Amino acid sequence: MSENDFQSRDIDVSRPSAARMYHYYLSGEAVFDVDKVFGEKIFQIFPYADVWAHHNRGFLQRATNFMVARGIRQFLDIGSGLPTVGNTHEVARQSAPDTRVVYVDNDFEAVTRAHELLAQQDALDTTAIIEADLRCPDLILGDADTRRLLDFDQPIGLLIISVWPFVPDSDHPYELMAQLRDRLPAGSYVAMSHASLWEASPEVKERILALTELYKQTSDPVVNRTRDEFAAFFDGFELVEPGLVHAPEWRPIESVDSQDPARPCNFAAVGYKP
C-alpha cells in the first residue's frame, strides 16, 4: 500500500474485522451478528481469546502509565480499535489531565464509535480519532488532527498494540516502522505487542495455527512472527526493562499465572528513542 491509496473501508457486515473481534474478546459485545457467529468459532478453537485480549489491554495500560510517569503528555495510538473500558486517554489522564491523544484505526465502525465516545466525554479538544492505516504513516502523521494535537518537537508515546500481525511482510512492515521511528522526537517511547505461537505449548500452538487459518475469513488475515522477528521492530530503540517478554510479564501489577495457556501467546516490549 502506497502513501496515497488508503481508502476508507465501508462497514462490511458480511465479514468480521480485527477491530470488532478484539472488542468482542474484551467486552463480550458482538457489534454485528457475523461477529458473534465468528466469535463462537474462535472460542471453540482458542478458548483463551478473551484472556489473550486482556493481556494486550493490560499491557497497553501499564505501558501508558509508565510513559506518563516519565513525562510523556502526548500519545499516538495506532490501531486503537473500538472504544472500551480503559482507553489510552482515560488511563493517562488519571495522572496527567493535560494529556493529548490521537487514535488511529482503519475500521469505520471503530472510528465512528470512538468519535461518539469522545464527544460524549467532551474530549474532542484534546483527543481525536482519525481513520487511517498503519501502512500509510505519512497520512497519519500529516493528518490535520495529528498536527493539531501532537507537537513533534516534544517526546511522544507511540502505541502499536497487536497491530503488526495484520500487516503482512509484503507490505514491508519494518520499513513502515522505520518511518514512524524516524519521525519521533528524541525522548519518545514506543510500546508494541505481537501475537505469536512460537513459545506456546504444542497444544496451544496447534490451536493458534487453526486460529490463523480461521482469520483468513475476516477482513484482516493474521501473520505469526517469532520473537526475533518481533524484536526487529525495535531497531533504533533502547528496550526498557524487562525487555521483550510475554505481555502479562511486562511490569505486572499482580502476580503472573505461569500456568495460563494464553500467557506465551503475546510478545510485548517498550522501547526508548535516545
Could you characterize what this model shows?
There is one protein chain. This protein is of the alpha/beta class and 274 residues long. Helices cover 39% and strands 14% of the residues. It has 10 helices and 8 strands. Strands 1, 2, 3, 4, 5, 6, 7 and 8 form an 8-stranded mixed sheet that branches. Helix 3 packs parallel to helix 4 (88-95). The longest helix is centred in the N-terminal third of the chain and has 21 residues, at 49-69. The chain is globular, with a radius of gyration of 17 Å. It starts with 17 loop residues before the first helix and ends with a strand. The model is unreliable at 1-9 (pLDDT under 50).
CA-CA gap between termini: 30 Å
- Percent strand equals 5-15%
Structural class: alpha/beta
Cα Rg: 17 Å
Please identify the oligomeric state: single chain
Order of helices and strands: HHHEHEHEHHEHEHHEEE
How many helices? 10
Portion of residues within helices: 25-40%
User: How many β-strand stretches?
Assistant: 8
Shape: globular
Largest sheet: 8 strands, mixed
Question: What's the overall average pLDDT, rounded?
Answer: 92
Which parts are unreliable, with pLDDT below 50 for 5 consecutive residues or more? Answer: 1-9
